[in-house]
Amino acid sequence: MQNRVVITGLGIWSCLGTTLEDVRQSLYDGKSGIIFSQERQDAGFRSPFCADIPSVDLKPYIARNQRQFMPEEAQYAYMATRSALEHARMDQDYIDQHEVGIIYGNDSVAEATMHALDKFRQAGSTAACGSGAIFQSMNSTVTMNLACLFHLKGINLTASAACASGSQSIGLATLLIRNGLQECVVCGGAQEANMYSVASFDGIQSFALRDVAAEASRPFDRERNGLVPGGGAATLILESYESAVRRGAPILAEILGWGFSGNGDHISTPNVAGPARSLELCLKDCGLQPTDIGYVNAHATSTRIGDAREAMAIAQAFGDYRVPVTSTKSQTGHEMWMAGASEIIYSLLMMKNDFIAGSINFHEPDEETACINVVPETRAAHFDTFLSNSFGFGGTNSTLVVKNIE
Amino acid sequence: MTRNEIMEQVNELLANEFEVEVSEITPESNIKETLSLDSLSLVDMIALVQVNYKVNIPASDLPKIQTFNDLYDYIESHLPA
């Protein structure tokens, strides 16, 4: 007997807003969260664009001695998780009495590591790194900080799977809850947004070039020429259906299935077979037909090859059915370690509010992306099941299907 | 650097780092209690002294430094020439 896995809370800190209502409105309006960064241009970036993410002030919530352990993305994740727990009506008393776990996506802590080592080299003393440096500079910094701050006593695990990290965290939590090993897991993804975290990524000429910042991220469009780095954090509270009912929690949706695969191929260039297998395995896991899916939130980051290969994978998995597809990265840029989680939230907000947010800047496909049905402008749409793709460097693929619960 | 200068500057640095009011720091008060230091944040105090005064406080000397006065004394007597 497998448990049904439901989503009972959402929280987000993103360039589209820091409340669900603001994010919903930004999605609906086709707002771009992308800006020109003079700092990056001056520092020597090839592409000067990035997402505009509100900074966090944790002083009202967390004492100095605990804030010391939190790099940028842990701060975003804390704010998103506070909101998600509140949304799920899960208070500290409940957490203290139950085994709540955390699986969160994160795959770098570049700035915190750099600052600590700069201090070490400058002072010639390891003590100069400060007491927080070791805890800030590990990939598991988000889960270690949040587990201590919220007193989480269940599984405590970081998913580091490049740009599929957030999605893989939800998939792993789904498996644990399905199998009865955990009743409730805090999931999500966090992404540092400072320029140091993506300098080397810009260095391999993966980022977009364009005159206007808001037009730089243009997934599936024929003029796309690279991604725009984003960041922030997104948290989902996953629990068994029985647990949610017992708590009287708001049940928003159900995770119907998870599919995953590896390309076993090139480190940065994706193929079609790997992503297609992830999609197909996910549909099989759900026991659904392609026509049961009302909307696909694509991984598409606005790179030439990545978007083309994903379009072919979607076309292969969906056959003659031209499912509506968009990439919310057209508005947010690429939220990387966070994207797999935030894009579930974006898609859920659309599903709950009966619209599909248009893939902004999509004007015309090229020969390779013409095989799918990209929705260019926001439109009213009722659907009760969506599919979300996340793919990452090294050929790690993850696909989730989520069904609405009224 | 006079003792008064050391006291004023150290108090300012510690208040800023550990988020307390300068007025809470008095020469005879206990450092750990006043600044809410645990075993980890104590390292930040050592680093602050090292970075600002080039004075290294080895672990073996820490028991001697209980009050702020003890800390001023330690810095004053170990300042590089």
Shape of chain B: globular
Question: Over all CA atoms, what is the radius of gyration of chain A?
Answer: 20 Å
Calculate the terminal CA-CA distance of chain A, rounded to whole Å.
24 Å
The total of beta strands of chain B comes to 0
Total beta-strand segments of chain A: 15
CATH class wording of the largest domain in chain A = Alpha Beta
- What is the topology, as strand order, of the major beta sheet of chain A? 5-4-6-7-1-8-15-14-9-10-12
Q: Quick one: CATH superfamily of chain B?
A: ACP-like
Residue share in β-strands of chain A: 15-25%
Global shape of chain A? globular
Describe the structure.
The complex is a heterodimer of chains A (406) and B (81). Chain A is of the alpha/beta class and 406 residues long. Chain A has two domains: 5-247, 3-Layer(aba) Sandwich (Peroxisomal Thiolase, Chain A, domain 1); 256-404, Thiolase/Chalcone synthase (Peroxisomal Thiolase, Chain A, domain 1, 3-Layer(aba) Sandwich). In chain A, 35% of the residues lie in helices and 20% in strands. Chain A is built from 15 helices and 15 strands. In chain A, strand 14 and strand 15 form a beta hairpin. In chain A, helix 9 (165-178) crosses helix 15. In chain A, 58% of the residues are buried. With 81 residues, chain B is mainly α. Chain B has a single domain (3-18, 26-78), classed as Orthogonal Bundle (Non-ribosomal Peptide Synthetase Peptidyl Carrier Protein, Chain A). Chain B is globular and about 30 Å long. The interface between A and B is medium-sized, with 14 and 14 residues.
